[in-house]
Amino acid sequence: MVRFGVLASGNGSNLQAILDAMAAGEIAGDLRIVIANQPTAKALQRAENAGKKALCIPHRDYASRAAFDAKLVSTLKAEQVDWVILAGFMRLLTKGFLDEFPNRVVNLHPSLLPAFPGVNAGQQALDYGVKLTGCTVHLVSEGMDSGPVIAQAAVRVRDDDDEQSLMSRLHQAEHQLLVEVVKGICESRVEFRPGAPGERAKVRFLRRSSVNGGP
Ligand code: GRF
User: Fold this and answer.
1) What are phi and psi of 28, to 5 degrees?
2) What one-character DSSP code corresponds to residue 118?
3) Burial 54-79 (b: 16+ CB within 10 A, else e)
4) Does 110 sit behind a cis peptide bond, omega within 30 degrees of 0 on the bond before it?
5) Is 128 helix (H, G, I), strand (E, B) or coil?
6) 132: how many CB neighbours lie within 10 A of its CB?
7) pTM reported for the whole predicted model
8) What is the pLDDT at residue 211?
9) Phi first, then psi: what are they for 17, rounded to 5°?
10) What is the distance in A from the centroid of ligand 1 to the CA of 175?
């Protein structure tokens, strides 16, 4: 069974979507540990409520980014984690961390990347005036919100949207998409495709029907 860990910093509604899908028997994986870098992260409570191991590792307790990441790595490795899911984890990870889980760190972002990376993706979409935005689940590479796309879902922008209303629909889309991808990872349906020299690496996400030979 695929073993994975979740890193979060705040509310943890995406973690909750994973926990709910696991409770419903929809994800055939083993969530070994949830780690938050903020003691107040609601994600920790959500993990505990679901009977999962939850640990706070405050980044402020570490002198450097490298030292903090090394602690994350040793904690995840002690749980024999194969994949790491960033569900609202607001810290950039170092190369040292990423090298320990090559092409097995997954992030979620509330825009159709490469559009609107970074913070306030919903407001960025409104400011630009796009009519369609969405969310992206991608592998993490060095750099912010970059790395091969695993899956995306589109969300229409309404004329009367403000940031709150748009983000609320984006969050709903994120919950579904992240669960779909975690399910796929646990069923070995997410394949990393290294790029030829000078080309981007890509990900093939096999939908269930193609695995079963369906249409
Ligand atoms: C999500 O919008 C995610 O895309 C971003 O952080 C947010 C986390 O939300 N990276 P939650 O903590 O899962 O509710």
Assistant:
1) -90, 60
2) S
3) beebebeebeeeeebbbebbebbeeb
4) no
5) helix
6) 11
7) 0.95
8) 55
9) -60, -40
10) 9
- Domains assigned to the chain: 1-102 (3.40.50.170), 113-215 (3.40.50.170)
Is 172 near ligand 1, meaning CB less than 6 Å away? Answer: no
Distance from the alpha carbon of residue 99 to the mean position of ligand 1, in angstroms = 24
Atom of ligand 1 nearest to the CA of 108: 4
Q: pLDDT value at position 214?
A: 44
- Ligand 1 neighbour 147 (Cβ under 6 A): no
Both ends of the chain: CA-CA distance in Å? 27
Tell me which DSSP letter residue 40 carries: T
Give the DSSP letter string of 59-109: GGGSSSHHHHHHHHHHHHHHTT-SEEEESS--SPPPHHHHHHSTT-EEEEE
Contact 4, 30 (CB under 8 A): yes
Check pocket membership of 134 for ligand 1, CB cut-off 6 A: no
Find the length of the chain: 215
- Closest C-alpha among 54, 61, 4 to residue 34: 54
For the chain (215 residues), the mean pLDDT of every run of 10, in chain order, is 97 98 97 97 98 98 97 98 97 96 97 96 98 98 90 98 98 98 98 94 85 49
